[in-house]
Design a protein that fits this description.
alpha+beta; L-fuculose-1-phosphate Aldolase; 2 domains
């Protein structure tokens, strides 16, 4: 638990350099199959400390999207009651989104921001469709071949239901979980297995968005062909496997 708290504090410190671009940032980490850590909503706009991090039980929060319709006040009540930490904090529906991404996105670390560059695209007529194609290799190897996406829904029950359905269907269709979830007219979510991967995803997504915005000023993006995307992804997987085999040999 202590190491995870330090991870979140370190992540916040590292991402603080991107604060002007990311605007608000919330970060979570999976403790175990029963609970997770998340910074308080009041600290989304500043660098966090250990005292800003709270632990929540997963089970009651994960029941929400499978329930009959619940009002925002009822959802906040459930979230508040799921808090394990002694000190009370203001409840937020963002807690629910983090829980869903950690569980059904099978992530160990999650970050949600209101990135200005990404939101300039997600708030446009193109919306998340602009990210359905790749213009650089890094977006494939770092952010994944395909992003998960949802249309805009007000925070609360229907937004949570949409996130839940998208994460479940994404794995069924793609045979893997997403590394990014794009919420139109709202902002991106990064899903990672470790702190460094989380930072890499966030930085690469920022670069991807900035290049997309620039390309639309010069006749539009020159998307990579599907063959190129598949080849880059296959080569990346080959290198990952080779690296893992090398590490396993060293430790055997």
């Amino acid at each position: 638990m202590k190491d995870l708290i330090e991870d979140l504090v370190s992540l916040s410190k590292e991402l603080e350099g991107l604060r002007p671009a990311l605007n608000q940032i919330s970060i979570s980490a999976l403790v175990n199959q029963d609970s997770f850590l998340l910074n308080s909503v009041e600290t989304n706009s500043k660098q966090i400390t250990k005292e800003d991090i709270y632990e929540y039980r997963l089970e009651p929060v994960l029941k929400i999207p499978n329930s009959e319709y619940l009002s925002e006040s009822k959802i906040l009540e459930i979230i508040k009651s799921s808090q394990k930490s002694r000190a009370s904090q203001k409840a937020s529906t963002e807690t629910l989104i983090h829980a869903l991404c950690l569980k059904y996105g099978e992530a160990k670390y999650v970050a949600h921001s209101h990135s200005l560059a990404v939101n300039k695209i997600l708030c446009s007529q193109m919306g998340s469709a602009a990210f359905k194609g790749h213009i650089i290799a890094d977006s494939i190897t770092v952010c994944g071949k395909t992003p998960a996406t949802i249309s805009f829904l007000e925070a609360g029950f229907f937004q949570a239901k949409a996130v839940y359905n998208e994460l479940k269907s994404f794995k069924k269709i793609n045979f893997q979980t997403p590394k990014i979830l794009l919420m139109e007219n709202h902002g991106p979510i990064a899903l990672a297995q470790n702190p460094q991967e989380l930072v890499n995803i966030i930085r690469t997504l920022e670069q991807w968005a900035e290049l997309l915005l620039a390309s639309y000023q010069l006749s539009g993006p020159n998307y990579l062909s599907l063959d190129h995307v598949l080849n880059i992804e296959a080569e990346h997987r080959r290198k990952q496997k080779q690296s893992k085999e090398t590490i396993d040999k060293i430790h055997s």
